[in-house]
Specification:
Pdz3 Domain, Thrombin, subunit H, single chain, elongated
């Protein structure tokens, strides 16, 4: 579930109430009090340009050609400017290319962290009469994940607990995004050798907040003014005293209501450079029966031990879907 490579369109998420509502906890000076998440969320992330996902030929009046291929464009390139004009959407890209009327265009792309300039000469598509360069592109991605926490002091949220990658196994970057509440309507159970997934519908009339940052530790942003936090449980966010042994998570695998599920922390590795700080095992028979264990969409499910928020679920072991990894909460909070 680590890669969030399967994007599920649809849905939205609702406010949650569960045991411990309104609970306040005395915290040490170095600890933070946060709202505990566990709610499924639908993410629509803007790429800040048009990302090329494939090249194709354009059928002209005389032959089939691919101006993009001839110019050296590749799948994975992100088109950021055309003729000096910043590109945010595919509609913008198509309009500028068509208005060229076949004149050469200087295109600025981002490739593997480098900025490159290429020159492309559009050709007229025989079927539509519009000028094209022969690229398949997208300007946004959508998927389902889980909110880990909301900071009570500033309304900032953290979710997912890991990066988001494209088809070429490269971490995506975003300019901004919208986070919706999400209703989970189905599950593909995880089995040995194949990760399962949650299927949900974005509730497009209920905005949870705005996504502002995507990094190796997850998706971070600010909750909207209309999102209700007064029914959420509060807990101290601290991983100082985490030990192998019993713990629990909050996750939503049906509808909009997070539920508590028992797990075991098998191993603690605070210094892991890949943020695989905990090895966890699902021990809750109900969750195993429903999902097979950890599935895509559960990334970000908050992990609690002794009443404290200590981290979030991030990965699943493909050879055993009841086991996976978790990230330390302090790593997420630093982002």
């Amino acid at each position: 579930m680590r890669k969030w490579s399967v994007f599920v369109l649809g849905a939205m998420l609702a406010s949650v109430s569960f045991s411990g509502v309104g609970t306040s906890v005395t915290a040490h000076a170095a600890e933070s009090i946060v709202y505990v998440g566990g709610m499924s969320a639908g993410f629509t992330l803007q790429a800040g340009g048009a990302q090329i996902i494939g090249l194709c030929e354009v059928m002209t009046a005389t032959c089939a050609v691919s101006p993009a291929l001839k110019a050296g464009l590749r799948a994975g390139d992100k088109i950021e400017k055309v003729g000096g004009i910043s590109i945010e959407t595919i509609a913008q890209l198509n309009e500028i290319i068509d208005k060229s009327r076949g004149k050469s265009l200087e295109i600025e792309i981002e490739r593997h962290g480098e900025t490159l300039l290429v020159v492309v000469q559009p050709v007229m598509d025989k079927a539509t009469g519009r000028y094209k360069i022969g690229v398949l592109a997208r300007d946004s991605v959508s998927g389902i994940g889980t909110v880990t926490y909301i900071d009570r002091s500033n309304g900032r949220f953290g979710s997912l607990g890991h990066s988001v990658e494209n088809e070429n196994k490269r971490q995506l970057t975003i300019s901004n995004g919208v986070v919706y509440e999400c209703n989970i309507v189905g599950i593909s159970k995880g089995v040995r050798g194949k990760a399962g997934e949650l299927r949900g519908m974005f509730l497009s009339n209920k905005t949870l907040g705005n996504a502002e940052k995507l990094c190796e530790c997850g998706i971070f942003g600010t909750v909207s003014d209309t999102f209700q936090t007064d029914e959420l449980m509060s807990a101290v966010a601290s991983s100082q005293d985490v030990r192998p042994g019993s713990a629990y998570i909050y996750s939503t695998v049906s509808g909009v209501q997070p539920q508590r599920y028992e797990i075991e922390i098998v191993k603690v590795d605070k210094g892991n450079k890949e943020n695989k700080n905990y090895v966890v095992k699902i021990t809750d028979e109900k969750l195993i029966d429903e999902t097979g264990g950890i599935v895509q969409g559960m990334s970000g499910s908050p992990i609690l031990q002794n009443g404290k928020l200590i981290g979030a679920i991030t990965h699943v072991f493909l050879n055993d879907p009841t086991r996976g990894y978790g990230i330390d909460i302090q790593t997420m909070l630093r982002e």
